[in-house]
Amino acid sequence: MRMGANWRPIPQAEMTEDSPAAKAPLDDHLLKAQLVRKIEALLKERGLKQVQAAQLFGVKQPDVSKLLHGDFRQFSLERLMRFLVALGQDVEIVVKPHHESAKSATLSIA
Questions:
Q1: Model confidence pLDDT, tens digit, residues 61-71
Q2: How far apart are CA 91 and CA 18, in angstroms?
Q3: Domain count along the chain
Q4: What is the pTM of this model?
Q5: The domain containing residue 62 runs over which residues?
């Protein structure tokens, strides 16, 4: 696996169950799953086949098939957002202060 220039292993002492470092991969995966679910709903709503979606997204049909069958590791969050834009959706990223009452900061798709 190739790592970026800023990559560093996270010391085991920092990897508690509630640590941001431990939650980040899961948060990313859940966000991707939410985006894929939205993409799938839009494709179904518009009656678009995988081949048509592939042309719209600039990928191959087997990639769309993998995406829709839950194998979306190869797609970044940014790329999934671009697919939504290609489907005519506005994508907003909102950053706001964390509320003290919540246990931890959250990432979510509305």
A1: 999 999 999 99
A2: 29
A3: 1
A4: 0.70
A5: 31-86
